[in-house]
Specification:
- The chain is of the alpha/beta class.
- It has five helices and twelve strands.
- Helices cover 16% and strands 30% of the residues.
């Protein structure tokens, strides 16, 4: 942005448009695509999984916007891209409307946005998810397990809110914790973080409170540059313009994220 406004000033001072600034503008895809609901799964009492008819090209960690004309739009992690699958937590007017769609109904998407993530071959990878953050980890498990060892740690308030458990088990070892003890270990996801391997890559997806607890545990066994966290900051544009998804360091979920290092 500094470079852009510096070039723009030169254009103004030269009393003409010399393309100094225009060459720094990034072209972004804001086009909506119509998709159709192929399958719905009631993974939890207020969490639905919607499979569409679109085959995409998203990288692990990226997200898309879903839009229903006259209702609104909202960003969602890409659970899978072949076909495109979204996990929808039933919370507000838009998500209730999206979850009410039936097989054959249509809505629109744009994206994917954000930076994809990757790890070196034969790495040890730990995926840590809490609540609806579980949706942001599935594509990571699916892709990373091809060439690395994947351990997925999932936590929620009860067994009804542990989504896609059998699918995660296809791609590595899975640990589960629930607050009421109805599935897996009774407790929080931090209670599962024992015997962690030195130098592992960590990908955390969930509320800020969860990440604040588990981050010190991960830093004991791995370097900051191997730890990535995705926090649910609301992004409204998806292309870095509005700044609504910036964290305390000014990093934007839609551009520098959604997975960022603690430094």
């Amino acid at each position: 942005i500094k470079a852009y406004f510096s070039a723009l000033r030169k254009d103004v001072d030269s009393n003409g448009w010399t393309n100094n600034a225009e060459g720094l503008l990034k072209r972004v895809n804001m086009q909506y695509r119509k998709v159709r609901v192929e399958r719905k799964e009631d993974s939890a009492c207020d969490f639905k999984i919607i499979q569409t008819d679109e085959v995409g090209d998203a990288e692990p960690g990226q997200f898309v916007f879903a839009w229903i004309p006259g209702v609104g739009e909202k960003p969602f992690s890409v659970m899978d891209d072949n076909p495109l699958i979204l996990g929808i937590l039933d919370r507000g007017e838009f998500t209730k409307k999206l979850n009410s769609l039936q097989r054959g109904d249509s809505f629109y998407v744009r994206g994917p946005y954000g930076q994809g993530v990757d790890v070196p071959q034969k790495s040890n990878v730990v995926l840590v998810g809490g609540g609806c953050g579980i949706a942001g980890l599935y594509l990571l498990a699916k892709r990373f397990s091809r060439e690395s060892n994947v351990l997925t740690l999932l936590a929620a308030k009860d067994r009804e809110h542990i989504a896609y458990l059998d699918e995660f088990r296809k791609y590595g070892e899975v640990g589960v914790a629930t607050e009421d003890g109805s599935l897996g270990r009774r407790g929080l996801v931090a209670d599962l973080m024992t015997d962690l391997k030195e130098g592992s890559y960590f990908f955390n997806c969930g509320p800020r409170a969860m990440i604040n607890v588990i981050l010190p545990l991960e830093l004991k066994v791995s370097a900051p540059e191997r730890i990535y966290s995705s926090v649910d900051y609301m992004t409204r544009c998806g292309v870095g313009v509005c700044g609504s998804c910036a964290d305390e360091k000014g990093r934007r979920t839609c551009i520098e994220g959604p997975f960022v290092n603690p430094e």
